[in-house]
Amino acid sequence: VRSNEGGLGYREIAEAMTERGYKMNHSTARNVFLAAMEKIAFNVCDFYSCDTDHDNLKRVSSDPRFQSGILDVLKTI
How far is CA 21 from CA 14, 17, 47, in A? Predict the structure, then answer.
């Protein structure tokens, strides 16, 4: 996933992590990223009293609009 915000794709993330001594492939980079997004999605859904079952969290966390919204929030911090 390469964003128009200048982000890296999963392959580039994996290569950067491997260069830093954390052996990683692009699938692992994707899984780690989506797991982090799912944790954030849980808290957001819980706060807004939305369904927090696994299927909904997976749907929300993998949505590019949600990921973009999280990026916007992180930029303001």
Answer: 11, 6, 37
